[in-house]
Amino acid sequence: MAFHLPFTDNLALVQSISPTPIPNPYWVGFSASVANLLGIPTTDNLPINPDYLNLLAGNQSHIGDQSYKTYATAYSGHQFGSWAGQLGDGRAIYLGDIHGQEVQLKGAGQTAYSRMGDGRAVLRSSIREFLCSEAMHFLGVPTSRALAVVGSDMLVMRESPETTAVCTRVAPSFLRIGHIEHYGHNQMWHELSLTLDYLIEHHYPECHHSPTPYLALLDQISLKTARMVAKWQSLGFCHGVLNTDNTSLLGLTLDYGPFGFLDQFQVDHICNHSDHGGRYSYHRQPEILHWNIYCLASAMLQPLQQELKRVRGIDGDEAIEYIKNTLNNYNKEYVKTWQTLFRKKLGLSTESEQDITLLEELLQTLHREKVDFTLFFRNLSEGLGVPTSMNSWYDTYKERLDIDKQSTDRRLESMQAVNPKYVLRNHLAQHAIELAQKKDFSEVSRLLKILEDPFTNQAVPESYALGPPPELAAISISCSS
């Protein structure tokens, strides 16, 4: 049973609501891997029970004699650095828990938190979220996952009319910083404590052993978030909208909107054309998530101060300094994880004082020469060398390999295990979307299969591993979904 259900008598927090049906639903994409996680029997990569189509379309709330109590939750948050007030599940409706996973239908209709929105998601954004959720999982990134996309010919208006879809999202929990901010901002101390206790009981049991469990919880969320964003940076992944209401309390990648994997490396790349100031550009992602963790600490301040006064005998400014010192662990964890990941990408099995300079010079050179990020590291891991413009850096790198004293075969094998050949590039997703808009879903299935094995050379055209052709290099992605 999901933690939210005890709050269903408080309409300021949770709304019990049924999804709004869509006409004539059809399968667009389905993940047998996620179905297996949820214990859903499949055949030919679709559920054996045909009723799942209507369940995941939002057209019914039961499978056989199993009924689901569907609901949506309130949260608040900071958007682009400014307090936005109450937000909430404006188009996501919970089915509840299946095999220990929370399941949401994104695009299943209006809720009490939809504000002026229609509660729908469009086919375009649903396919992108479906494919990237699974791609990130198989790249080893902590993430929500996606079971399915169900489409319909029903039209909704965005910049132009688009067909609607429902994406089924799956995670151990969809709790986000915005939930804690909502309770803290509105001084809902009872609900805040219940939620923090739930997190410790179900997701951070190690915090039970700390004399200050809430502070330990804040620290663990911070560390998980630091590891997650370090993984993003190592893969050249840009999220695009790192608002606090899009930031998981479990250190998961949530809410795939205007994301993008870097093609030509630019350290200040902005993947969201609505981000005019570059707040969520590639190089700022670690800093912004640290800022979001500070927002979490601020929302938790009352119970944190009470705990520190009771256990440590400190309060006021001293308690705040204590909390700040805990938050400094984020930067230490991020730097440590980032360095470890990039050493692995370069096949370095030992540490050397010169590594930081080597890594910094590499990123500066990739930026200056606008080198394809994924392709560079993959070619390096296959022993294919580097562009001639990078020969100076490459000579230094080879000298560093001599210090490492690892066999070439072993090094290349280890590098290929961490440097993917295939990522969800925007032009690949766009091609699948354009075919799907013509009712051809074969490319969605094909891309999913490729992305489920991103580190292995596959019997597919080499174009799936390459950057976009020049005419597709500037695909622009917005928040519209």
TrEMBL record:
It catalyses: L-seryl-[protein] + UTP = O-(5'-uridylyl)-L-seryl-[protein] + diphosphate; L-threonyl-[protein] + ATP = 3-O-(5'-adenylyl)-L-threonyl-[protein] + diphosphate; L-tyrosyl-[protein] + UTP = O-(5'-uridylyl)-L-tyrosyl-[protein] + diphosphate; L-tyrosyl-[protein] + ATP = O-(5'-adenylyl)-L-tyrosyl-[protein] + diphosphate. Mg(2+) binds at N246, D255. The active site is at D245. Keywords: ATP-binding, Magnesium, Manganese, Metal-binding, Nucleotide-binding, Nucleotidyltransferase, Transferase. Pfam families: SelO. ATP binds at G88, G90, R91, K106, D118, G119, R169, R176, D255. It is an enzyme of class 2 (transferase). Its EC number is 2.7.7.-, 2.7.7.108. One of its GO terms (molecular function) is manganese ion binding. Its cofactor is Mg(2+); Mn(2+). It comes from the Bacteria. Nucleotidyltransferase involved in the post-translational modification of proteins. It can catalyze the addition of adenosine monophosphate (AMP) or uridine monophosphate (UMP) to a protein, resulting in modifications known as AMPylation and UMPylation. Belongs to the SELO family. This is Protein nucleotidyltransferase YdiU.
